[in-house]
Design goal:
Elements lengths: L3 E5 L4 H7 L1 H9 L4 E7 L3 H5 L6 E5 L1 H4 L6 H14 L4 E6 L4 H9 L2 E10 L11 H5 L2 E3 L7 H13 L36 E5 L11 H13 L3 E4 L4 H16 L8 E2 L5 H9 L3 E5 L2 H8 L4 E5 L4 H4 L13 E5 L6 H25 L1
Parallel strand pairs: 1-2, 1-4, 2-3, 4-5, 5-6, 7-8, 7-10, 8-9, 10-11, 11-12
Helix pairs in contact: 1-8, 1-12, 2-8, 9-10, 9-14
């Protein structure tokens, strides 16, 4: 029987995506391991797409904290705790470093020789709260200047005693094959995307990360002129209005070719599958853009702040020339031309990768 490991990374979407390579790392180092994951319920559909995650344990701590004494909160909390304690774990790894994740780690049941692991320190640009190390049996120090993906990978590797052997593998570009796995309800994805569709991810959780509407329209016109189809996902009513405004600007631009696609509101698993069908993604710093990285799509990520070193696409090791996934930073915001040139560079690199794959086949 393999070891049982519980990962605790509750939110947000981008942070959960950044932690995904830990699952593949564990399976590579410890064949037969059972990897379970505690996450906010809204993000559980993403983890359900990962074939290496045995059980997704969903919580709603964000909602429960708003009404801690409500009858529904107490009932849901008891059900969550019962599910959390069904298995005894050989290792519980708090990848988040917050009081709420420390609480979840503390509630998890350990095997006889099991231990809890957590971060011992804050890393640059990340949130951190002291209870995470008070609860842990072992608190591990990370370099203060470290990429978010690498931080999770290093923490798990040190906790479980293995060395990292390869580049990050997010595991999302594989079909779900585990027998008996609970599946998300089937959805019809009315995106009608063509093979040359490029998704423009304009939505983000912070207004200061946004890119100007006029820039999106200008970029979309360049894409259409070059023969690409523009696809516009959204995750809220306000983002839908932005998608519609971009589409209107492109239609008024008078470019012929494939119609602009304003996608319907999609559940997270359906959105991930829809993105996987696209030729690439251009987006601001957001969870959806990070999914594009996890899917290994040609991708340009737009930054108004110099934080891409911590959360943006990581350049492949020992890579020469332009990258398939890049970040573009400028203040107050990158220009349309800078983003366009980065996209062309991604396509150049993507063509080289595809040619190499064809030769190998």
């Amino acid at each position: 029987m393999g070891v049982k490991i519980l990962l605790v990374k509750l939110s947000s979407l981008g942070d959960v995506v950044h932690a995904l390579p830990v699952v593949q790392d564990i399976h590579a180092a410890l064949p037969g391991a059972q990897v379970d994951w505690v996450v906010e319920k809204s993000l559980a559909p993403l983890l359900a797409l990962h074939p290496g995650v045995h059980c997704v344990i969903a919580c709603q701590i964000r909602r429960w904290r708003k009404a801690p004494l409500a009858a529904t909160t107490r009932q849901e909390w008891r059900a969550f705790r019962a599910q959390l304690q069904q298995d005894a774990y050989d290792a519980v790894i708090d990848l988040q470093g917050l009081a709420k994740s420390a609480l979840v780690a503390r509630l998890a049941r350990l095997a006889t020789a099991g231990r809890r692991f957590a971060l011992a320190n804050q890393t640059e640009g990340s949130s951190y709260e002291a209870p995470t190390r008070w609860v842990a049996d072992v608190a591990l120090r990370m370099p203060p200047h470290i990429h978010a993906v690498q931080r999770s990978r290093e923490l798990a590797a040190q906790a479980l005693g293995y060395a990292l052997q390869s580049a990050p593998d997010f595991g999302l570009n594989r079909p779900v094959t585990q027998a008996g796995r609970a599946q998300a309800a089937p959805e019809t994805i009315a995106t009608n995307a063509r093979p040359r569709a490029v998704a423009l991810v304009h939505g983000t959780s912070r207004a200061d990360k946004e890119w100007p509407l006029a820039h999106w329209v200008a970029l979309g016109l360049r894409l259409q002129t070059a023969g690409w189809q523009v696809a516009l996902p959204h995750g809220s009513a306000s983002e839908l209005l932005t998608s519609q405004a971009i589409a209107q600007g492109l239609n008024q631009g008078g470019k012929s070719g494939e119609p602009v696609l304003v996608w319907p509101l999609l559940a997270l698993d359906a959105l991930t599958k829809a993105l996987a069908q696209c030729a690439g993604v251009i987006g601001v710093d957001s969870g959806v853009s990070h999914i594009a990285v996890a899917l290994d799509l040609p991708h340009v990520q737009i930054y108004n702040f110099d934080t891409a070193w911590r959360t943006g696409p990581q350049p492949p090791e020992k890579q020469s020339g332009v990258a398939r996934q890049v970040s573009v930073f400028a203040q107050p915001t990158p220009s349309v031309d800078a983003v366009w040139q980065a996209w062309l560079g991604c396509q150049q690199r993507n063509g080289a990768v595809m040619a190499a794959a064809g030769s190998a086949a």
